Amino acid sequence: MQKVFERIAVFGVGLIGGSFALALKKAGVVEQVVGVGRSRASLERARQLGIIDEIASDTAHALRNTDLVLIAAPVAQTAAILTAIYPHLQPGTIVTDAGSTKADVVAAARASLAEKIAQFVPAHPIAGREQNGPEAALVDLYAGKKAVITRLAENSDDDVGRVAWAWQQCGAIIHHLEPAAHDAVFAAVSHLPHLLAYALVDDIARKPHADTLFQYAASGFRDFTRIAGSSPEMWRDISLANRMAMLEELDSYTARLSILRQYLLDADGAGIEGIYANAQRARHNWISAIEAAEKQQRGGGD
Fold first, then answer.
1. Angstrom distance (rounded) from CA 33 to CA 54
2. Could you tell me what percent of the chain has a pLDDT over 90?
3. Residue 44 confidence (pLDDT) above 50
């Protein structure tokens, strides 16, 4: 396994791409990081913060003698970025991404990279914050977090290994899923929760007495709606990219809400408590499983 990346290019130097670059630098496994993005101001700030060493003048410059390319821009930009990369992608350079959806990204890669598709290894680090931009980047964002690789049939074991190794140097734990399975899973446990949080805050903000409601909102509301502070552009793109899986999950959730509504209408305390108790047990089991996994990881488990 290659021990050092001589040069990597990061498209999108905010939270996700910036944290990736900082972590690889801290691990001492990259010699130079070149940044690419839509905002010159963000790129300059990333350089000031030591996230990147150089600002690419264009895509050709970014891809010159580059070992690894990370696309960390909103998923709707993936196709355009891959199309720009294609003419300059040399043998031996691996392209990966950090997108929260995978089936659409894979489709874009197949259309944009054509015969070079084997050089694209799709991935998704399961970590984030509500803040955006280079200032939000954290050197330890990925420590102990999962990074899911959704390898393609065309990918070589060596290239998948290089991408996995890069994320491992950031402290991530590698998991593998098929692209469609990935999107179904994250529609349920990530994408739908964001939609619900945005919808609740939007609903309250539109009420005529919103100021009073927000005045009395406390820790429960803050915890439930924390993710509504995330980038609207990014989550718009994710919602549209994974809309079919999200619709399935939204329909399932709506059906559960309808049951709860009927219980409320009927003053059915036993029915309400049954749903609450099942949810409580499931959450406790989930938290216990996380704590056990983290303990095993700290203890050097298999």
1. 7
2. 89
3. yes
Domain map (residue ranges) of the chain = 5-177, 182-267
3-state DSSP percent of the chain in helix, strand and coil, to 5? 60, 10, 25
Question: At CA 140, angle to CA 109 and CA 239, rounded to 5?
Answer: 40
Ramachandran region, residue 300 (left: φ > 0; alpha: ψ -120 to 50; beta: rest): left
The tokens describing 38, both together, are: 């839509």
Looking at domain 5-177, its CATH architecture is 3-Layer(aba) Sandwich (3.40)
Tens digits of residue pLDDT in 117-175: 999 999 999 998 778 899 999 999 999 999 999 999 999 999 999 999 999 999 999 99
What average pLDDT does the segment 227-236 reach?
Answer: 92
Distances (CA, A) of 301 to 49, 206, 290: 35, 50, 14
| Close Cβ partners of 202 (under 8 Å, ≥ 6 residues apart) | none
Task: Please indicate whether the domains covering 5-177 and 182-267 agree at the CATH topology level.
Answer: no
Query: Taking Cα atoms as reference points, which of 100, 108, 46 lies closest to residue 82?
Result: 108
- The overall average pLDDT reported for the chain is 94
Token couple for 91:
């043998």
User: Per-residue pLDDT tens for 278-288?
Assistant: 999 999 999 99
Do residues 127 and 8 touch, judged by C-beta distance below 8 A? Answer: no
Q: CA-based Rg of the chain, rounded to a whole angstrom?
A: 21
Homologous superfamily of 182-267: 6-phosphogluconate dehydrogenase C-terminal like domain (1.10.3660.10)
Say which residues have a Cβ less than 8 Å from residue 283's Cβ, sequence separation at least 6. none
